[in-house]
Specification:
CATH superfamily: HUPs
Radius of gyration: 18 Å
Strand order of the largest sheet: 2-1-5-4-3-6-8-7
Structural class: alpha/beta
CATH topology: Rossmann fold
Mean pLDDT: 86
Order of helices and strands: EEHHEHEHEHHHEEEH
Helix content: 25-40%
CATH class: Alpha Beta
Number of domains: 1
Strand content: 5-15%
Low-confidence stretches: 1-5, 7-28
Number of strands: 8
Length: 264
């Protein structure tokens, strides 16, 4: 069954305080989206204004000037809470999309709950059309081991595409230092596949900067980060990374797969 459930802190209409309660709800803003032409023009203007290396807070400030909070969403894997915290500083109550694939580490779910409780955000659990059991019945058990690309398409790419339909802009935590496939990540771009503006305010950050910001601001963090998991995905497809390895070497190890499909 398709599912989208929101964890909305605070009362409707107000700035969410810290703390949250889970209630089922529809995802996406109530207001109508601007046209594709308008949004593309905004993306081009933002890219020109911010350039290659504007600080994250300036990138988010540009978004706050040009987009309503309810028209924006933050994608978060719950490895850390830096991106939701940065965005919530200027767009309190922003929707934070968590792709609940059904395969996450327990620590990842614990981090999601801590983010919902401690930050002024709205957690939106985005679920695939099928449960893991339903997918096993339809596709065969452990699809991730036989065809990880299709598993990601069913449990990540399609649910995210569906959930983004009501928004004008989404934030991601993609960084250029994560892998060779991400070295050219812009701060602002037009996402043709999903039909909205895509913003990567932390593109120029390093992993060490991310960890330092999290520690300095006492943010929730996935404990697996300190256990050799600099990039955290689904449990069956993620392993610890050895010293000196690419930060994403632990994802789909032993295959030629390097991306889940969300950012390509």
């Amino acid at each position: 069954m398709t599912g989208l459930s929101k964890t909305r802190p605070g009362e409707a209409g107000g700035v969410p305080p810290e703390g949250a309660r889970r209630t089922p709800d529809a995802a996406g803003p109530a207001a109508s989206k601007r046209s594709e032409a308008e949004l593309k023009a905004l993306a081009e203007a933002g890219a020109a204004e911010l350039g290659w290396d504007a600080p994250a807070h300036e990138v988010i400030a540009w978004v706050a000037r040009n987009f309503a909070t309810e028209a924006t969403a933050v994608a978060c894997s719950m490895a850390d809470a830096v991106l939701p915290a940065l965005v919530a500083d200027q767009l309190p109550g922003v929707d934070v999309l968590f792709l609940d694939t059904g395969y996450h580490f327990p620590e990842t779910y614990e981090t999601r709950d801590a983010v919902a409780e401690n930050l002024r955000v709205t957690i939106v659990d985005v679920t695939p059309k099928q449960t893991v059991a339903e997918q096993d019945a339809a596709e065969g058990k452990d699809l991730f081991a036989r065809d990880p690309g299709r598993c990601c398409a069913l449990r990540k790419v399609e649910p995210l595409h569906r959930s983004l339909a009501g928004y004008e802009l989404w934030f991601t935590g993609v960084r250029r230092d994560e892998s060779p496939t991400r070295t050219n990540t812009p701060l602002v771009t037009w996402d043709e596949k999903n039909g909205l503006v895509k913003v990567n305010p932390m593109a120029g950050w390093t992993f060490d900067e991310l960890v330092q910001y999290s520690e300095d601001n006492l943010l929730p963090v996935n404990p697996l980060l300190a256990q050799g998991y600099p990039s955290i995905g689904c449990a069956p497809c993620t392993r610890p990374v050895a010293p000196g390895e690419d930060p994403r070497a632990g994802r789909w190890s032993g295959t030629d797969k390097t991306e889940c499909g969300l950012h390509v």
